[in-house]
Specification:
The protein is mainly alpha-helical. It has helices at about 40-55, 60-65, 70-100, 105-125, 145-175, 185-215, 220-240, 255-265, 275-280, 330-355, 360-365, 385-410, 420-450, 470-495, 500-530, 545-570; strands at about 10, 10-15, 20, 25-30, 315, 320, 370-375, 375-380. The chain folds into two domains: about 35-240, Up-down Bundle (Growth Hormone, Chain: A); about 340-570, MFS general substrate transporter like domains (Growth Hormone, Chain: A, Up-down Bundle), CATH 1.20.1250.20. Helices cover about 60% and strands about 5% of the residues. A hairpin with a 1-residue loop joins strand 1 (about 10) and strand 2.
C-alpha cells in the first residue's frame, strides 16, 4: 500500500512545526493554506492565458480558409482533429503531473510551451514567406507549401504541449490552495469552481470580440500578436505568486496501483468472495496525508479478491509482501471510484458533439448570412461564439449568488442542485440548441435560395439576406448548457476521483472534449462521403447542402444521450457512500 506525506513547498519549506494526526498515530507537517490570497495570481494567470490561447484558436477556421486557402471541409476536419488532440493531451500531462512533476512544475513548463506556440503562429501571419500569397474573390488562390504547413503544424504542436499541462492542472492547482478539511475551505472550493469558470468565460468573451475583430478587420499579425503578449503576461503573473502557492508533492504513479488491483484480482479469481469484508480483507492503517480513507462498498465485488489475504506469507508487518498479489481495501476502492465514473463520463463525449459545432459550422453559417449591425459594422463570423459565452458569464454569478442559497433551503444540499442534476440539465439544453440550430439553418438556406442574396463569400457561397442574429438564441441556449454541464463535470471528477489523481480529474472533461471533437470530425467525414454523390449535406456552399439535417441528426443522438445519462446517474454511487 502506498503511503506518503504532503510536503509544503511554497518557494521554501515551511518552518512551522504544526502537525496533524494520522490514523496510525503518526504525524505530518501541516500545510499552510493561503486560500483566496493566492487567487489573484492563479486566476490572473488563467485569465490572461485563456485570453492568449482562445484569442489564438477562436478564429482559426477563418484563418485556415482565408489565409492558408484551405477548403472549408478540410479546415473543419483539421480543426476538429487539432481540438481533439489539444483536449486529449491533458491525459498524458495529468499522469506526469500526478506521478512525477507536481502541478506547479507542469504548469510552468506548459505555460512556456504555449508562449512559444503562439509566437510561431504569429510568425506564420507576419512573415510573407510563411503563408500563401493573398488572392481576391474569384481568383485562383495558391496553396500553402509543405514548408509553410510545417511551421503551422509546429506551432500547433507547442500549443498541444501547453494544453497538456495547463488544462488538467490549472483548476486542481487553484483548488489545492484551500483547506478541504475546514468548512471555509470547502465553501472556498465550491465557489472557486464557479468563479474560475466565470473568469474563463469572461476571457473567452474578450477573445471572441476584441481580438477576433482585430484579426478579421485590422491585421492578422497584430491580431495574433496580442494573444502572444497576453500569454507572456500570464507567465509573469504565475511565477510572481510562487511564494504563496501550496505545492502538493506527487506520491508516485497512481496508475501502478490501478494495474496492481486488476493483476491481484485476476490471480485470485478462483477464490470465494469474503463473507465478512471487515475481517477477511487486507485493510492496514491509512497513512496518506493527501488521500481520504475510503469505506468498503459492495459494487464490483470481484475486485475485492485483490485484498483477500490467502496465506500468512502475503503480509509482512503492515504492508503486503508482494503488492502485485495483495492490495489494500483503499487501493481497491480507489479503482472502484474510477470504474463508477466511466459511464457518467462517457455521456460527455456525445454532449460535446453539439458543443463543438459552435466553432465550426456555426461560423460557416454566419459567413453566409447577413452579419451587418447598422450600415457599416459587420460582426466577424467567429465572434458569434461570444453569445454562448455571454450566456455562461451572466448565468454563473446569478446561479452562485442568487439561486444556490435558495436551492439549499429546498434541497438541503450545499451546492443547491446535485452535480449529476446539473449535468443532466446541460445535456438536455444542448439537444434543444441543436433543434433550434436546425430550424434556423433551414430558414437561412430557404431565404438564400428564394430571395436576392447580398454577395458572395471568398469561398464562393452566396450570402443569405437572413440576419445572422437569428443564430443568437441557439448559441445562448448552448452556452447555458455549458454553464450547467461543464462546471459540474469538472467539479464532479475533482470530488469523486481520489485526491492523488486530481490532475487526471482535470483532464477527464477535456478528454471528453477531445473525443467529442474526434466524433464530430468522424460524423462530418461520414456524412460528407455518404451524401457527397447526391445532395451533399455539408457542401462547400452551404446553400447547396443540408446542414439542417446534420443538426437534426446530432439532436437525435442527443435524445439517446439524455436517456443513457439518466440510467447512469440513477446507478451511480457517490464516493464515501458505504455499503449498507
Amino acid at each position: 500500500m502506498r503511503g506518503g506525506g504532503a510536503g509544503e513547498e511554497a518557494g521554501q519549506k515551511l518552518k512551522s512545526m504544526d502537525v496533524d494526526k494520522l490514523e496510525n498515530g503518526g504525524e505530518r507537517p501541516a500545510l499552510k493554506y493561503h486560500g483566496w490570497r493566492a487567487m489573484p495570481f492563479i486566476i490572473g494567470n488563467e485569465t490572461f492565458e485563456k485570453l492568449g490561447t482562445l484569442g489564438t484558436s477562436a478564429n482559426l477556421l477563418v484563418y485556415l480558409t482565408q489565409v492558408f486557402h484551405m477548403r472549408s471541409v478540410d479546415a473543419a476536419t483539421l480543426l476538429n482533429g487539432l481540438n481533439g488532440t489539444t483536449s486529449l493531451a491533458p491525459i498524458i500531462g495529468a499522469f506526469l503531473s500526478d506521478a512525477y512533476l507536481g502541478r506547479y512544475l507542469a504548469l510552468a513548463i506548459a505555460s512556456v510551451a504555449s508562449l512559444i506556440g503562439m509566437f510561431l503562429l504569429t510568425m506564420t501571419a507576419a512573415a510573407d514567406g510563411l503563408h500563401p500569397a493573398e488572392c481576391g474573390v474569384g481568383e485562383t488562390c495558391s496553396k500553402a507549401t509543405s514548408g509553410q504547413f510545417a511551421v503551422l503544424f509546429m506551432s500547433f504542436a507547442f500549443l498541444v504541449l501547453g494544453s497538456a499541462g495547463i488544462r488538467p492542472c490549472s483548476m486542481p492547482f487553484g483548488a489545492d490552495q484551500f483547506d478541504p478539511h475546514t468548512e471555509s475551505g470547502k465553501r472556498g472550493i465550491n465557489s472557486f469552481f464557479n468563479w474560475y469558470y466565470f473568469t474563463f468565460t469572461s476571457a473567452m468573451l474578450v477573445s471572441a470580440t476584441v481580438i477576433i475583430y482585430v484579426q478579421s478587420n485590422v491585421s492578422w499579425p497584430i491580431g495574433l500578436g496580442i494573444p502572444t503578449a497576453l500569454m507572456l503576461l500570464a507567465c509573469v503573473l504565475f511565477f510572481m505568486g510562487t511564494r504563496l502557492y501550496v505545492r502538493v508533492t506527487p506520491e508516485g504513479s497512481p496508475f501502478t496501483s490501478i494495474v496492481q488491483v486488476f493483476a491481484a484480482a485476476a490471480r485470485k479469481r478462483s477464490l470465494k468472495q469474503p463473507k465478512d469484508p471487515k475481517q477477511d480483507l487486507f485493510d492496514p492503517p491509512h497513512t496518506s496525508a493527501i488521500v481520504t480513507k475510503l469505506a468498503h462498498t459492495d459494487q464490483f465485488r470481484c475486485l475485492d479478491k485483490a485484498a483477500i489475504v490467502s496465506g500468512p506469507d502475503d503480509v509482512r508487518g503492515a504492508a503486503p509482501s508482494n503488492p502485485w498479489r495483495l492490495c489494500s481495501v483503499q487501493q481497491v476502492e480507489e479503482v472502484k471510484c474510477l470504474i463508477r465514473i466511466v459511464p457518467v463520463w462517457s455521456t460527455g463525449i456525445i454532449y460535446y458533439v453539439a458543443v463543438v459545432q459552435q466553432s465550426t459550422y456555426v461560423v460557416l453559417s454566419a459567413l453566409q448570412s447577413d452579419r451587418h449591425l447598422g450600415k457599416s459594422f459587420q460582426i466577424p463570423a467567429a465572434s458569434f461564439t461570444v453569445f454562448a459565452m455571454l450566456a455562461q458569464t451572466l448565468w454563473i454569478p446569478i446561479y452562485d449568488r442568487l439561486l444556490v442559497p435558495r436551492l439549499r433551503k429546498v434541497t438541503g444540499k450545499d451546492e443547491g442542485l446535485t452535480l449529476l442534476q446539473r449535468q443532466g440539465i446541460g445535456i438536455a439544453l444542448s439537444t434543444v440548441a441543436m433543434v433550434m440550430s436546425a430550424v434556423v439553418e433551414d430558414r437561412r438556406r430557404h431565404i438564400a435560395l428564394t430571395q436576392p442574396t447580398l454577395g458572395t463569400t471568398i469561398t464562393g457561397g452566396a450570402i443569405s439576406a437572413m440576419s445572422s442574429l437569428w443564430m443568437v438564441p441557439q448559441l445562448m441556449v448552448l452556452g447555458l448548457s455549458e454553464a450547467f454541464n461543464l462546471i459540474s463535470q469538472i467539479e464532479f471528477y475533482y470530488k469523486e476521483i481520489p485526491e492523488h489523481m486530481r490532475s487526471v480529474a482535470g483532464a477527464l472533461a477535456f478528454c471528453n472534449l477531445a473525443l467529442g471533437n474526434y466524433l464530430s470530425g468522424f460524423l462530418v467525414t461520414i456524412v460528407h462521403r455518404t451524401t457527397g454523390a447526391g445532395s451533399n449535406w455539408l457542401a462547400q456552399d452551404l446553400n447547396k447542402g443540408r446542414l439542417d439535417l446534420f443538426y437534426w441528426m446530432i439532436a437525435g443522438i442527443g435524445i439517446f444521450n439524455i436517456i443513457y445519462f439518466m440510467i447512469c446517474a440513477k446507478w451511480y454511487r457517490f464516493k464515501g457512500a458505504a455499503a449498507n
